Structure formats: C-alpha cells, structure tokens
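REQUEST ID: PR-0412
SUBMITTED BY: lab tech R.K.
PRIORITY: routine
TASK: structure prediction, single protein chain
INPUT:
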Amino acid sequence: MKTSISWLQKSFDAPLPHPDALIDAFTFHAFEIEEAAGDLMDVKVLPNRAADCLCHRGIAKELSAILELPMKRDSLREPIPTFPQSNMLKVDIEDNKKCLRYMGAMVCGVKVGPSPAWLKDALESVGQRSINNIVDATNFVMLNIGQPLHAFDAARMQIQNGAYSIRVRQANAGEKIMALDGKEYVLEPSMAVITDAHADTPIGIAGVKGGSAAQIGNETQDIIIESANFNGPLVRRAAQKLKLFTDASLRFQNNPSPELCAYGMRDVLDLVVRVAGGAVEGVVDIYPTPQTQTPVQTSLARINGLLGSTFSREEVAHVFERLDLSTNIENDTFTITPPFERTDIVIPEDLTEEVGRILGYDRVVPCILPATTISPDQARYRGIEFVKDFLVDRGFTEISTQSFSKKGDIVLANPLDKTNPALRTDLVHNMQEALTKAAYYAPLVLPPNQKPKLFEIGTVFTKEGEQIVVATSEPVKDIPALQDNKDYIPCLYELGAFKPFSIYPYIVRDIALWTPAGTNAEEVLEMIKTQAGELCVKIYLFDTFTKEGRVSLGFRLIFQSFERTLTEEEVNKIMAELSGILGDKGFEIR
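STATUS: complete
OUTPUT:
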C-alpha cells in the first residue's frame, strides 16, 4: 500500500514524527515497510488486515493506536446521511452470494474536466495518474477509506420509462467485454458482470474493471456511481483467469465489509459535487443480508497465558481503547464488539494478538522450555542421524530425492507431476540418476580420479506399507553391524560461507611438466593458478612420479565463466600462453 505521509498528516492535528520513527512504529507493532523515500512509504499490508488497512484511513488508525496520537476525525465513525431514493435508476442482483451489496447513485449535470490541484497532487503522491475530476474522485475515496468505486456515463446506457437499469449477473460463456484498458476480454460463467439491464450488455467486470461501453468522457453530463461489495474468492479467480489485477480487485479479494459501501458512497457524492458540480438525484441500495457484528470474549488470564506475559487488566483495557474497540469489562473478562471494518477480529486469539503487538512483544519475558522425554519419533530421528554421521565420516555426501516415480505399488489419484504418478518402492533408481548428475559436476568439487560417494535415507512405499531405508552409491563396510542408538547425540556441523556457482558449462584441461628434484608442488600449483587467470576456477595436482632425478607433476585445470559459455578456442589460447610462461621459467612441458 503506497502511503503518503502528507496525506496521513491530514488525519492529525499534532505533527507526525520523523519518517524513520514512523517506520519503526509500523515495523515493531503492525506492518513491514517495503520501501520508503521522501514522503512515500510502501506499507506491506498482509491479507488479514487488507479489509481495513489498504487505505490511508486504516494506516492512520494504526498510527493513532501505536503512537497514542488522537485523530482529529475518523470518517468511518461519522454518521451516514439518509440518501434520497432514486426514481431514475433501478438495480437488480441475480445472486446475493456473489454480490453482497450494490449501491447506485444518479448524479445529473456534472461537468467533466481536469481535477483541482490538491486532488491531482494527492493521487500523484502515491503514484496514481490523474484522469479527470470524476474518475479522480472515485480513486481518491478508494485510497482514502478503502472502498472501490466506479462511475458510468448514463448517456451511453439505454433508458426506458425514464429510468436506467443495472443488473449484476453471471457472465455467459464466451461473452466478451472491451475494458477501460482498451483490451477485449473473454468471460466465463465463473465471473460476474455489471450490465446495462435494458440492453443486457456488460459494462463492467464485477470487482475487477469497468468497461469502455459506458466510459466517462469530456461530454458526459449524467453519471451513475457504483459502490458495491463483491464476493472475494469470485473476484480473485476472475482477476487471475483474466490476468487483470487492479486496485479494486486487490481490495475486493480480501473481503472488505459491505458496510463500507455506504461510507464510500457518502464521500464520493460529496467530492463529485465539489469538483464537478451537478446534483444528486437519488440512490438505490440493494443490501439483502446486512452485516452484524459478533462480540468476541476473552479474559486476562487467557491473554497472558497465550503470550506468556504479565500484562495488567488496566494495560489490556487501554489497548482496546487505543484501538477504538467497543469494550465491556466484567472483572477480568473482556467482551469486544469489533467495528465493522475489522473483519479480522473473530476469535479470542485475535484479541490476544492485538494486545501483544500494541504493547510490544519485547515486553514478553522469555522463559526456558520444560524438559521433555524422548518420544519414539525423537528416538527414530537420533537413530537416523547416527547412520548419517557414520556415512559422512566415511566420505559420503547425503542427497534427498523426490518420493515420486514412474512406476510403483501405489499410484496417486492426482499427481503433482503426471510423468511420475506413483510413489517410489526403492531408492535405487533415484540414486542412479543422482550419480549420473554427480559424475558431471565431480570435476568442479572433487580431485581427479575420485568418484562421488552418495547416500540417501528416505521413505519407500510398498504394498506392505511405508519403510525407511538407506541406499549408498557403493558398498560400505560394517554398515547390517550398525546398532540403533536412541541416545545418540548428532554431530554439529559448522557451515562455511556460501559461494555462488556458475550455471554455464566448464572445460577441463590437463598439463604435466618436468621439474627439478626438490621442487615444491604447492608453489608450482599457485604459479599456474595465477597465470591461468580468473577463468580457472579449480586446479588439482593429480599425478606425480620421479624419473632420472626429475619429478613429473600433473595438474588438472577447470575453466568456467559466471557470465557466459566458454569456447574451446579461448581456453586453448590460455593454455598456450600458460605453457609458454612455464617454459620460460625452466619447466619442460611433457
């Protein structure tokens, strides 16, 4: 959620702290800040809080609670006016599970044009492009309180008996709509559309995008404003199938409260009349099942028990007051009736989370976990680790392969990979595949002439049931002699720093040279490494013998680039230059 600090400041009389302090406040009590620059903060609002915090009002409300900074006004706590009933607009909802509420307002005599400077500046401060005063008004209200809105040009719709008609219905298979982005989309019955009911033609994809058929233009005079609430999963699936992700779909897919529709309509009508003139003819509100707020009850003992804290009754009560949660307290029991926009507060644990984050998890005193007895699972784990450490001590490297295979006793009804529809009955086939891959990469990590030694401990699935078995790439002496050791303490291995690896192929070259007796092989290796350059990623001494007072040293060089595939020609050139340098130093190339 791109958030303007200047926009937030309008909710407070007192000046907000420095941006660094705001970032700390959010990070330790509410949300991560993904990016901050100047007046802009990108707040990472997680899905559980998207219903109320994908807007400046929600972010300001959080700041008010965290910093104990009173808001000068909260638009969601101000009364909703009684809207006049429209005689020029009718609304019908086909399925009230797909559209929970639909409000439509008729506004006549508007004048479409550029937005005033303050409105343009507000939108541009969070990366939004100003379009015109009507569209900007709907976008501003959405960014301010979180309710997506849309405006249609009434003149582009049919009128019968002096009234326009909107219907929310299921899309027809193969039905098409030209959206405001200029692209045509093919719809499916799993989606919902807003239609001009008189013509039965779609003018919007419900919760996702408006259509160009009723687009606002410079000549527009009469408009219909939509403030609705659509089923979250329905909107999410439609956006994913169409690959059409919008500010509206982001908000609807997180199930904001249908109560928010009326606040959005109130604010947008007020703003449209201010910036574009006109008069509100009336409003239609179809709300089949009004939302009710269910109280949530918890106790001080439960809160402290879950957090492992010793917060007082007064501290907890003050948290609920800071969060503007309607609270009834009897002894040490709290009964909370959450406000309509806090759709995330439904169980006692939700209240515990609110207390913990506001007071600060740093106030929860850490304690040592009680001692536990070794369970059968723990004993099995220790036994497996015993076998692993035994094999690692003998130079083996552990691999972990997938449990799926082409054939097996158990075939999956819905496999993740249709080429491997069964569960494995042994580890042998995967071991063979791993050895083939390891042989290719061996020169990069192993000295010459040393084969990879691999092992795997994993579950196999046969008709008799599941079993844990061990497979090794070569026989291991004294391994049917290992005894299960439930008290074994596994080895602790200290990992080194991670080194990036190249995705490009390597090239191997060998070079052998005669050296005088007594020559230090390590010094020659370092000399070759320096002269071979950065493309030489590995060098090994793989052969040495003495003849007639001279010592033959054989080195293997591995060349590889992190940026491209090397060619034979450039490696041959390096080797030729290296041979010349070694010859100049008195070594004879064999």
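NOTES: The radius of gyration is 35 Å.
REVIEWED BY: pending
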